Amino acid sequence: MAVMIGVDIGTTSTKVVAFDLQGKALASANNPYALIQSEPDMAEESPEAIFSAVIIGLQRVVAQVAGQSVAGISFSAAMHSVIVMDAQNRPLTRVLTWADNRGAAFAQQLRADGRGAALFAKTGVPVHPMSPLVKLMWLQKTQPAVMAKAAHVIGIKDYVLFRLFGRYVQDYSLANATGLMDIFTMDWDPDALALAGLQPAQLPQLVDTDYQLQGMAPELAATIGVAADTPVVIGASDGVLSNLGVAAITPGTVAVTIGTSGAVRTVVDRPVCDPSGRLFTYYLAPNRWVVGGPVNNGGVVWRWARDTFFAGRDYDQLTAMAAQVPAGADGLLFLPYLGGERAPLWDADARGSFIGLTRQHDQATMLRAVLEGITFNLFAVMQLVAELAGQPKAIQATGGFARSALWRQLLADIFAAPVTIPDSFESSALGAAVLGMQSLGLCASLDAVAAMVGQTHTQQPSADVAVYSELMPIWADCASRLAGAYAAIAGFQRRHPDKNAAIASKD
User: Fold this and answer.
1) pLDDT tens figures, 335-358
2) Class of the 2-239 domain?
3) What are phi and psi of 87, to 5 degrees?
4) What distance in Å separates the CA atoms of residue 204 and residue 175, rounded to the nearest whole number?
5) What are the tens digits of pLDDT across the range 404-449?
6) What crossing angle do the helices spanning 299-309 and 315-323 adopt, rounded to 10°?
7) Could you tell me if 150 and 92 are in contact, meaning their C-beta atoms sit under 8 angstroms apart?
8) pTM
């Protein structure tokens, strides 16, 4: 039996999943790595640690499907990463991840002088510190000696593929997310490159998302346990592949993902840019573009709540406590902006808040408010998506949160719509595998995913819709009113850093 392997290089771990040609998961591996945050706004990772996680994951999965033919391997990867390489193809930096906010001042400058709007109209990428364009502007200013030695500027998937094949290639989807590519010409944008201080020769070769590589380094192929001529499909970004992996690739179907971060996305048939600059436009495949908004504050905020209020407790215990609190958390609202925010604010200085706190509120109420605040924020993004692409006809949800009955019900109630949850939680890995199958002629088109995505059930809204429809405008008004204070608070924190607050590493 032939199998297709999907590799999803994520923010905190790499997931490798082997699927049969009907989309059934046969084997999987998940290998974590540290996120390095030893100074304010830093979010870096080790390229070598991630490469090792990919190789070990592939090795384990191939061993689990021994005796079956590996038809191919296809890749998904987190967006917005940057690695600077020297002329000997050695990293000069660690991986700067999407969560690295040190370029905030450069993003603010671009927005203030109008260049940001002009760039957004060509690239479809909101101007924010997440963007590799902004990261590179920051690197040019703060680390000129490093940038003077920059022979190549790449992302984490490019690094992995270089180690495997000795070539620098980047798919249109991840290139699109750099803020350096014109989505109408499908080539590097001269204005963006000038701001980043780069020449086209320093960037990888651009290829479509179904591009195949062959000729893997023999020693690495042997380590993994596959033939060196096993085809590898370059794939796309984890965001657009998550839509594919839940079969949300037709107009009117929206995918909501909550993992470490989160996103709300829908597919349109051509590149369109939100006039307000609040949503991204990312390439998946010909005539399939994903419009949506990412949030910084998904499951990572729930982890913060656990570690802060209930160190040592597991997530099931916490959700059971929160489930005992009535909808609306007794009027306690939570703005989940613990790590700045992308959509809907696009403000790296955004900060979190509890609003409406009284002596009657306890830890369980605060837990409930945290869950509701994360979901309110996602709904705010959904409202923006609906403005640009129309009201959704169906909502597909995925991510680690989908394992929780309380999370699923909150999503259905706050979004006031039925929510379908597929069997597979690893939607980006499945999306990568399906894109690989299509590239290798193992399925007729990407639409074949509809027959591959199982579904546990559809979560129906409850009577609590009325509670949340009353609270949502209040929550949104609080978010709007506090926006003006964020820069001042963040500035104070930078001038008076808590020396004990730096996080050396967190998996």
Assistant:
1) 999 989 999 999 989 999 999 999
2) alpha beta
3) -70, -20
4) 9
5) 999 999 999 999 999 998 877 788 999 999 999 999 999 999 999 9
6) 90
7) yes
8) 0.91
